Fold:
Amino acid sequence: MKKWLIPLIIIGVLAVAGYSWVKGFYNTAIELNENIQESWGNVETTYQRRGDLIGNLVKTVQGAADFEKGTLTQVIEARAKATSVTIDPSNITPEQLAQFSQAQSGLSGALKSLLVTIERYPDLKANQNFLKLQDELASTENQILTARTRFNEATKPYNNHVKKFPGNVLAGIFNLEGKP
Structure:
């Protein structure tokens, strides 16, 4: 074998190995990011379900009791605010996540207020429609917790992948940032 061919072979092998490593890093980052987007979609879906259930709950309560208008207005406004805040999962920032969480917390507080007020209406508590909606709402709150936990679990591997050396160098080249 010719001596000049050995450096070319070494360079070729290093180029193929480097290409494979970069391709593997990038494809893994994309796959992990897709998992994050799917998980965030599930979080948004459960919040949407809660918003829909609250609308039905408010209608049921409104029809069954001489309801306190202040609490009802508070719930309706909090629901509208919570459903108006949306986040692009491919571009999540800590500020957006905080704004989303604040809107959802406002809705949770208004809902607690609604449920406390309902305690004063014994006929409503016996209403089968209301009881079913209340059970579904409790179930949805558990689904929200599960979806948020899965979102956090999906975010961790991605952040580890793009923040650890030497992946962070490639992440900088490809503009891949960690997620909040």
